[in-house]
Amino acid sequence: MRRIFLIVIIAISGLYPVHSQDPDEILKRIEQNMSSDNRIFESSMTIHGSRASRTITSRSYAVGDKQSFTEYLSPAREQGTKMLKLENQLWIYSPSTDRIIQIAGHMLRQSVMGSDLSYEDMMEDRKITEIYSAIVTGDEIIDNRKTWILELTAKVSDVAYHKRKMWVDAERYVPVREELYAKSGQLLKRTTLSEAENINGRWFPMKVVYKDMLKQGDGTEFRMTSIKFDQKIPDHIFTKASLKQ
Amino acid sequence: MRGNLPAGRGEMILSEAFSKKLGVDPGDEVTLISSTMDGSMAFYNFIVSGTVLFGLEVLDRGTVIADIDDIRTALNMENAAGEIAGFFKNGFYDDNKALVMAAGFASSFNNENDDYSPVMKSLSNQGSLGLYVNMVELWTIMISMIFIIAMSLVLWNAGLLGGLRRYGEVGLRLAMGEEKGHVFRTMIYEAVMIGIAGSIAGTIIGLFFAWLIQKYGINVSGMMEGSAVMIPSHIRARIQPVDFYIGFIPGLISTVIGTMLAGIGIYKRQTAKLFKELEA
Fold first, then answer.
1. Environment class of residue B44 by beta-carbon count within 10 Å: exposed (0-12), middle (13-18) or buried (19+)?
2. Is the alpha carbon torsion for B114, B118, B122, B127 positive or negative?
3. In this complex, do B45 and A97 lie within 8 Å of one another by their Cβ atoms?
């Protein structure tokens, strides 16, 4: 009798898999991969609009998630445009007008260079564990790799996306897909991360495709052309004076 | 108001109120911050060449006028336009014509899958402006109907009372041997003459006031404060062919019908009782 009971328990367990993975542990491992004390990277951003595609290249310096400085290198129209983010403030320098403009309020909802990313997306610098509570809802095989499916629900009210669904590589702890939802449940953005490389012991996706579901076009492809972690970045880079240099 | 019109590229004029709000004067440099056709932020410097008072709340609030080539460069939209305003040749808006034209255009050019496909919209299809157009049309019909019905009732009543007041006169004429039909017909002829004369006089007076409103308009700028719709500060009347004969409906027809109804009583009068009535 006891044996039959055991078989039944095992059978039920098989039908309804229990996800013993700790979601907070998964998020912590993701942050270990994706966050760093500082980094310098060059990237190309290809915006696939409904009529044509444009590629914008840039060089960025970042210290943690609070400070970043980006200089756009091409095309000619954007060349020399610089962006500085310090804590929750964002400035943009336009070389053609020689003006530094602070991006605030409703301007934060504007698209970055016409891409599927908004300035608001760039401004989020809190740790994901601080603003979302997560649960593991299942697993899925994506590109022959096992992934955990995490559902994140906002714990605070001042977030751009109330709910997120994240597919995380179960071995590398790198997100491979993410869906961002409004409070109403509408899907706002979809992100696909791929070409993960092991750099200095951490797995990092070199290609990210952002798709604003409310916009036409085929999304924005963000590709890292080079990335260096734990570099020495001079403090003067993260000052407003560096924007005009 | 101040300065000059733009003499070349890189110059713009601002509305006077907007320039005061920004604290800039002719000769100062201003930066336009907008978004390009692709959706990225756009920055472009201009020199303020002058300021102007448009006299329209919406325009005075924040209008800038610059060389179209400058704007195209600033917004990265060479040989492109965001909006093109179309006007009917006679200068008056006809919603039915506009709707037909917009439907024809949509069948040829509209593509839901292309952000850049051109869209033609009639005024009535443009959000709150559409509501305004519908309201104006409804008000026009309602005001005309109320006026025509009210005036018809008044004049009908006038004709009716006119006929009844002449009770004694009709009785006397019948007593003197005049035929009932003749009395009735002469009263109708009178009503027609009075109706025509009254309608002509009324139409002339009405057209005079309509002409005054057409030429000088009524200043409604006070009602337009805070409005987001570009509407002239003066509303004006428009004299149309229909205005030359619409007044004859209450003026002539109602008077005649009133008199005809009153005249029915003539046929009910009995000759035998006439002298008794006249004695009374």
1. buried
2. positive
3. yes
Neighbours of A210 (CB within 10 A): 23
Q: From the CA of B30, how many Å to the nearest CA of chain A?
A: 9
List of chain B residues whose C-beta atoms are within 8 Å of the C-beta of residue A111: 35, 39-40
- Spacing of C-alpha A12 from chain mean position: 38
pTM over 0.90: no
Alpha carbons B278 and B164: distance in angstroms, whole number: 15
> What is the Cα gyration radius of chain A?
21
ipTM above 0.90, yes or no: no
With an 8 Å Cβ cutoff, are A110 and B31 in contact? no
What count of CB pairs under 8 Å joins A to B?
50
From chain A, the residues in CB contact with B39 under 8 A are: 110-111, 114-115
Residue with more model confidence, A37 or B58: A37
Phi-psi region of A101 (alpha: psi -120 to 50; beta: other; left: phi over 0): beta
CA B29 to chain centre: 43
CB-count burial class (<10 Å; 0-12, 13-18, 19+) for B266: buried
Contacts of B76 in chain A (CB under 8 A): 77
- Per-residue pLDDT of chain A (245 residues), as tens digits, is 455 444 444 444 444 444 567 898 999 999 888 888 888 999 999 999 877 889 999 999 988 878 889 999 999 888 999 999 888 888 999 998 999 988 887 778 788 888 888 888 877 767 788 889 999 999 999 999 999 999 999 998 888 899 999 999 999 999 999 999 999 999 999 999 999 999 988 999 999 999 999 888 889 999 999 999 888 899 999 999 999 88
For residue B36, what is the nearest residue in chain A, using CA coordinates?
Answer: A114
Q: Are B112 and B215 in contact (CB under 8 A)?
A: no
List the structure tokens of A47. Answer: 């915006």
Contacts of B171 (CB under 8 A, 6+ apart): B269, B274, B277, B278
